[in-house]
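Example S7 (structure tokens).
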């Protein structure tokens, strides 16, 4: 009988790709993947270790799986990912039901442990098993990060940047295209510094050009995430503008807008440079949708610095925006600072920014009423289906409710009839 395994993937898209690689290796070794943990022989939890809420969710999930093992519902519990990379001893001590603990990149060892067989990610017969709908997929172009932002523990968990070669990425993208992927989401910890670490340096614009030359027309969208503004060069901006299938969209996390806070965060640029990069982006790519993320309540963020951030958000008018409240991460530079903004003030500041953003988003969405947009259909319902425009990434951005006949995974033209802060509604024109 086949070994049955259930995979629980937590955290970001980069961790999701790790889970997909592991599932590919396990399937290749005749392991059956189940939808639920109950009744599986093995449960693998891919943990997230970034920010306290994510850590709590990871521990809660491991504890639930540990309960299943205690009651005899599963035989084996394996934990991998960022949290276990950082705190293996603590996890082993606190949760003795865990059979083995691995890091994020130990795919070969995990497959060996579960199946007793060999597996290599470089095997040409191997391919990752997608956990996303088959029409879109994440494309991880590098692992790790060299930046050392003061608040961030990711380099402690994932190490320094290791970029993949352009041929390896192009090969993976072509295979994804052959499987029916229509949208590729390009990810790394910092996509704009892609390629600096390779023996023969290359840049994100070289990769964009190489992908564009080698992909079939069926891949209509390529979307770039995690573009660090300090490394957003003119050649990258120009490549985005020159390549039709790169969505007129950029995820550009700025984190803050006060020079004092940005310096303490070690972000490598100040407010004026962020403003200038955004202007150059908008000049080269009229109508580009910008997504950003911010941190409020960073140590030393007084009312003045917070108000500066609010003013900047209102000035730039980002299209999509997420806010995190500062959370102290062990062993980071910021952990040495006094975490002096009370939790309720952090929450209040987050709410203030989100309120301003909701107004901005409402105005931008209302302006789309009457326009006809290309939409990729993510879900088909009996009366209403759901899709996204090129200005929206899956899971994190807005959706479009579509009336009329559409097909999952296909593009359609949608006439926008109404809008609220975070959703558009329209009718399919086919
Ligand atoms: S760019 Fe900064 S925030 Fe992003 S992963 Fe690297 S160190 Fe962390």
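Recovered sequence:
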């Amino acid at each position: 009988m086949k070994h049955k395994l259930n995979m629980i993937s937590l955290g970001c898209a980069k961790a999701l790709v790790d889970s997909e690689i592991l599932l590919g290796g396990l399937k290749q070794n005749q392991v059956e993947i189940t939808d639920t943990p109950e009744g599986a022989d093995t449960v693998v939890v891919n943990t997230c270790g970034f920010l306290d809420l994510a850590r709590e969710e990871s521990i809660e999930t491991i504890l639930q799986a540990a309960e299943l093992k205690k009651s005899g519902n599963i035989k084996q519990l394996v934990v991998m990912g960022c949290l276990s990379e950082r705190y293996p001893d603590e996890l082993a001590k606190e949760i003795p039901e865990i059979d083995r603990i691995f890091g994020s990149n130990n795919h070969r060892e995990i497959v060996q442990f579960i199946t007793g067989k060999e597996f290599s990610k470089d095997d040409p017969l191997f391919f990752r098993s997608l956990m996303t709908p088959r029409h879109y997929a994440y494309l991880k172009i590098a692992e790790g990060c060299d930046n050392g932002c003061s608040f961030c523990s990711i380099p402690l968990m994932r190490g320094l940047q290791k970029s993949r070669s352009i041929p390896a990425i192009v090969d993976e993208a072509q295979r994804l295209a052959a499987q029916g992927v229509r949208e590729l989401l390009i990810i790394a910890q910092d996509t704009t510094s892609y390629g600096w670490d390779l023996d023969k340096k290359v840049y994100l614009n070289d990769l964009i050009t190489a992908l564009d030359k080698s992909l079939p027309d069926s891949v209509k969208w390529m979307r770039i995430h995690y573009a660090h503004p300090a490394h957003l060069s003119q050649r990258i901006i120009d490549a985005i503008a020159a390549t039709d299938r790169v969505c007129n969209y950029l995820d550009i996390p700025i984190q803050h807008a006060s020079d004092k806070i940005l310096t303490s965060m070690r972000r490598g640029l100040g407010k004026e440079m962020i403003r200038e990069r955004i202007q150059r982006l908008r000049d080269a790519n009229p109508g580009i949708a910008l997504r950003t993320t911010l941190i409020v309540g960073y140590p030393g963020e007084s009312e003045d610095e917070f108000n500066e951030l609010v003013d900047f958000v209102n000035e730039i008018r980002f299209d999509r925006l997420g806010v995190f409240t500062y959370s102290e991460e062990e062993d980071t530079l910021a952990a040495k600072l006094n975490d002096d903004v009370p939790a309720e003030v952090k929450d209040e500041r987050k709410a203030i920014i989100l309120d301003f953003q909701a107004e901005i988003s409402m105005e931008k969405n209302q302006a789309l009423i009457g326009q006809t947009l290309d939409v990729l259909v993510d879900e088909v319902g009996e009366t209403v289906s759901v899709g996204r425009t090129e200005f929206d990434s899956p899971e994190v951005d807005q959706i479009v409710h579509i009336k009329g006949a559409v097909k999952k995974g296909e593009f359609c033209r949608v006439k926008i009839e109404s809008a609220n802060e975070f959703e558009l509604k329209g009718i399919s024109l086919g």
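Notes on this example. The pocket of iron/sulfur cluster is lined by residues 145, 147-149, 152, 154-155, 189-190, 228 (CB under 6 Å).
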